[in-house]
């Protein structure tokens, strides 16, 4: 048996650290995203971690022919085509409570829409995008004052907890499938959000909808929302007032 961890950022590295405590290193394969240049940025590089710790880096074509493979995706950016794999043990950790918010921009959209709960879902990979049968999830209350940047770290932490909870069942093929509705309308493509063109807000009196939009756009490594010409570092709702911290 071989285990492949595919993805990016600290959560993928924590996946590897955890799995390597159970599975010999020689049986673990690493599949970084194509965008991973082997250098740390605001998040650590999975490729750099793999090279430094002598894990074998692979590619998709090599994985297709491995019969006894467990493939685990966490923030992997390519669409997986299960029909190309010999193995059927293909799993994904998705940053929403599926079946809602399939596809991209899950963190942004949940905050933008004022969702009361967020979480991470473990599911099988099928031919659709995040439509595979659900195995398990971690759900938590989404604070009214959390921004997208802070929530992303919470989502990463939950994904690691969810792996630790389910890995032995995955390994021993003892996981159970949860019943759920397949709500296909909750899919969002990569092109469905253009952050550069939606980050500008001009108003003297913020509405709740605009407050949520500002929270959803606060992600310093990529962008900050601009309110009345000023970059917003953070925003809070306290005693019926919106308190804005500018960059």
Would you give an account of this structure?
There is one protein chain. The protein has 247 residues and is α/β, with parallel strands linked by helices. The chain folds into two domains: 2-180, Rossmann fold (3-Layer(aba) Sandwich), CATH 3.40.50; 194-246, no CATH class. It has helices at 9-19, 46-52, 60-64, 106-112, 148-171, 195-198, 208-217; strands at 2-7, 28-32, 56-57, 69-74, 89-94, 102-103, 117-124, 134-141, 187-188, 200-201, 226-227, 230-238, 241-246. The strands form three sheets. A seven-stranded mixed beta sheet has the order 3-2-1-4-5-7-8, with helices on one face. Strands 10-11-12-13 form a four-stranded mixed beta sheet. The longest helix has 24 residues, at 148-171. The chain is globular and about 60 Å long. The mean pLDDT is 96.
Characterize this entry briefly.
The model has no long low-confidence stretch (mean pLDDT 96). The protein has helices at residues 9-19, 46-52, 60-64, 106-112, 148-171, 195-198, 208-217, and strands at residues 2-7, 28-32, 56-57, 69-74, 89-94, 102-103, 117-124, 134-141, 187-188, 200-201, 226-227, 230-238, 241-246. Strand 1, helix 1 (9-19) and strand 2 form a beta-alpha-beta unit.
Task: Report the end-to-end length measured between terminal Cα atoms.
Answer: 50 Å
State the CATH topology of the largest domain. Answer: Rossmann fold
Number of helices: 7
CATH class of the largest domain: Alpha Beta
Number of domains: 2
Task: Write out the strand line-up for the largest beta sheet, numbering strands in chain order.
Answer: 3-2-1-4-5-7-8
